[in-house]
Amino acid sequence: MPHRLITDQARFDEFCAHALAMGEVAFDTEFISESTYQPELCLLQLATREQAVAVDPYAVHDLSAWWNVMTDTKTVIVVHGGREEVRFCVRFSDKRPEKLVDVQVAEGLHSRSFPLNYTALVGRVLGLRTEGRETRTDWRRRPLTESQILYAIEDVQHLLEVWDKQRASLAKRGRLAWAEAEFERMVSEVDQERTRENWRRLPGIQSLRPRQLAVIRELYDWREKEAKERDKPARRVLRDDLLVELAHRQPTDVNDLLATRDMNRSDYRRVAPELLASIQRGVALPQDQCPTIKRYDKDQDEQILAQLLAIALANRCAQAEVAISLVGTSTDLKHLVRSHVYGEKSDSPPRLTEGWRSEVCGNLLTDVLSGRIALRVNDPQSDHPLIFERWDARPGADGK
User: Fold this and answer.
1) Model pTM?
2) Per residue in 366-389, pLDDT tens?
3) Which residues make Cβ contacts (< 8 Å) with residue 319, sequence separation at least 6?
């Protein structure tokens, strides 16, 4: 399979036309995210069944032909752990991929391995060994060496064949629709990052009152704007824990602001007026406009029940040969507890009760919560050592 580094715009556009004609293409990127506001795209790797190439975005300045391929409604894009690739697509084209396949996700839907790295996945599915020698490369440096280019291209040259085998296996087990639904969910989650209230994902804000939440929202928005203007990672502009501390303290002057632990730095002194203005905006917001976070009176009970469900779910996923981390998280389990036990109403039903996840779980989890299921150890040597029995199916359950 011929491969090379593309540094010419015409050659790049020609390859994109070729990918459209083929109807399927593997895609990966190399990027650096440690020192910029958003990850810096350093290299694109693309492969059809006939060609495999790397593309230098520092030399090929117009990548629109590729984003048109990636958002085409007929062309299948195959990735491995492709959230960042989806983010690049959304960021540079303002559109989302339409037919994306993620082989890392697919592997987790017919085995218990997720997330599996590229080398291990190729070895498992194809029985091939890949090199993987350039994992610490600074991909911004030029010129790239031949070994760097070969390593980068290796990350895509097996993806189409991997998906061929996975697709056949998933179809045989009746799980191809599961994979397609999960690919769609992953793309939708990345696409929604642009519009969601990302400040709500800050650690340590669950205990904040509405006024404090209003302050931290203003500080978060200021930090995002400042980080973008300075092209620095947001957490290097102001750490998450300092945002929370300032929301607690709500300083009113420079001395009070800089008296906050770890805030007595020259760069913080420079932006102190902006920080104080952000805090004041949050303090001045009318009470009925302050944001809130839903809190639960039964957090401890909820945690215990969620842990019980986690045991049941782990055992069920082992039986079904599907990765538990794909089926449900602790947040999903708590959502189910709040909905089924405490009758909480939310914007969407518990994820574990919908789609392919309901096929995995069935009524197991809700029956556990309803007290209809008894748990016992069946075979300690098994990879799913527990057995769950309905009370009405157990000997003597009728009291006789």
Assistant:
1) 0.89
2) 999 888 888 888 888 887 788 878
3) 384
